[in-house]
Structure formats: structure tokens, C-alpha cells
What does this fold into?
Amino acid sequence: MKAVRCTAYGNPEVLKLVEIPKPIPQSNELLIRIHATAVNSGDVRIRKADPWAVRLFFGFSKPRKAVLGGVFSGEVVEVGHAVRQFKVGDSVFGSTGMEFGAYAEFKAIKETATLALKPESLNHLEAATIPFGALTALDFIRKANIQAGQKVMIYGASGAVGSAAVQLALAFGAEVTAVCSGANMELMKKIGADKVINYQKENLSVNNEQYDVIYEAVNQLTFSESIEHLKKDGILILGAAGLAQMLRAGLARISGRKVLTGVIKESADGMNFIKGLIDQGKYQVVLDRIFTLDQIAEAHEYVDLGHKKGNVAVQVAPDAR
Ligand SMILES: NC(=O)c1ccc[n+]([C@@H]2O[C@H](COP(=O)([O-])OP(=O)(O)OC[C@H]3O[C@@H](n4cnc5c(N)ncnc54)[C@H](OP(=O)(O)O)[C@@H]3O)[C@@H](O)[C@H]2O)c1
It folds into this structure.
């Protein structure tokens, strides 16, 4: 099968389209023919070894899991004899988590992994864009226990995680202020944000608001700027924190502040929850550009710029649309 291997840490050119053996599913696994995947900030971080500590977990000189790609949408084409929840012909979407391997035509994955039936209203390209941002935002939003009527600010609202956080906070009944650049203000209104702040022109104090929850999705606000706009017992989510911010968060917790950070947990339950919202028309796809598997280096170059609008999908099978 065709797959894209990450041959070293570095620029997008380290990604090479190669032929590798098609996986054989174990008794508790599904074999998925991948129709579409996506290039997410997570893939880019591994490819670049950014932060450097990536090497400690994923391999010192190059990623041990050479085929990157953490999300997929596709069709079940084989099942192991112990599989009960899915059958051949099911359309499914989900996350491979730290296993990666979705930049490929096929992936074998446990039936208990982070996946669900694909919403019928979405094609595979659209569906592949959902898991990364939505599962990340959902985990933090559930931990923050966002309630109806709360005022929530999403900073960095136009990325994969930010656009998911806006929509999920709205689905939980919050009043949402989205912070993005001028170019993305219309997009924020389209996905339902109650208020939008253009960080290029306006000060965060423009609405004179104190928030119950601030979700800092892109690690661009200083800790003190965030705290300044948070209610005294409000919750600060540092969704993209590096080591320094994590230490800062630890200190803030000692002095009584509620700060959430760390690595998210994904689950099939989360996937089914998000599928439910999509089926009810409460969650929209935010799809920026589409590339093909042999253009994956270009897709990475685009994501590297740090200004994608929502998500970048990658077509793997010709019938993904
Ligand atoms: N904790 C976890 O387990 C976990 C899981 C997944 C992701 N993450 C982290 O979450 C972060 C966001 O991921 P993502 O996939 O959403 O990234 P992304 O899609 O690549 O983010 C791109 C967005 O960032 C916005 N942006 C760039 N500079 C900004 C600034 N100065 N102020 C406000 N917005 C700005 C851009 O909007 P403009 O063009 O409008 O500037 C663009 O829409 C990443 O650092 C990722 O590593 C953490």
C-alpha cells in the first residue's frame, strides 16, 4: 500500500511517499481503508520534533512510528474474528492517537480504539477533520465543567482546536467570545460565536468582560494577561502549554487558581458524543484546504505557517468526497 514515511525530524521534505506492506488485522482489530486523513498541529510537532522533548518519547533521531497521521475517515474492509461492534462496509472516523499511521491507504486498529460510525451528513474529507480538534477541546471543556450561561473566551479560536472549542462551549450553553485575527471574524460568526475580538486591532478588555473560563488554545497570551480577564474563581485552560507554562500553572494552583493543562485523553465515547452533535446539526466542519497524499509535504508547509483556518484535509482514496 501507499504510505507517507517521516524519514527524519525536519522540514516537510522529510516526508516521503513509499510502498509498505498492507497491515493484517489481529482478532480484535478492524482493517480500515482510509479515504481521508488530515494534517494537524500534532503531526507537525512530531515531524519537527517541537518541542525537543518529542525525541524522548517518539525516537531520538527520527520518529519510531514512521508513518504519521493521527486521524482518519474510511471504510471497514476486514474484521478480526473477535470483533463485535463494527462490520465490513461500515464507514468510520476516528483517531489513531499516539499510534499514528493514518498517512496510509490502510490502517489496522482495535475495535475499542477512538472511533465511531461516520456521520452520514459528512463526506470522508470532512469527517477526517473532526477528531483532532474536537477530542482535544471536548476533554478540556468537560474537565472545566462548562455550564449553560457561563461566559467563556476562546483565544486562538480559528485553529482546529479553537474552532472546535467555540462550537463545543456553545453546545454546552455558554456565551462564547472568540478571539482571532480580522481575516477569521466572519468564520467565527458563522460557527456561532456570540462575540468576536480581533486580536490585531482590539484589546481583550474591549467588552469589559470577566470570564468564567478562558481557553487559551495557541499559547500566545501571557499568564498574567489571561488571569487579568478571568473571574476570581474562573478556570484557565492552557491547551497548548509548554513546560514553562505548565510550571507556571503548577505555581498558580498552589495559590488557589484553577488552571487546566497537560495532554488530553481521547475516547470512543468522545467520538460518539461529537457524532451526536454533528447529527443534530450542532457542530460544523471547518475545512480550509484539501491536499492529496502525494502532496503531503505541501500540506505540512501550509500548516507550518500557523494560520490555517480550522483544518487541512488529505485525500487518500479517489472516492473520499
Ligand atoms: N494539550 C493537548 O493534549 C493538545 C492536543 C492537541 C493540540 N494541542 C495544541 O493546541 C495548539 C493549537 O492546535 P491547533 O491544531 O488548533 O493549531 P492550528 O490549527 O495550527 O492553529 C492555527 C490558528 O492559530 C491562530 N493563531 C496564530 N497566532 C495567533 C495569535 N497570536 N493569536 C491568536 N490566534 C493565533 C491562527 O489564527 P489567525 O490566522 O487568525 O492568527 C490559526 O487559525 C497547538 O499548540 C497544539 O500543539 C494540545
Remarks:
- The pocket of NAP is lined by residues 40-42, 45, 133, 136, 156, 158-162, 180-181, 183-184, 199, 217-220, 239-240, 263-264, 303, 306-309 (CB under 6 Å).
- The chain has a mean pLDDT of 97.
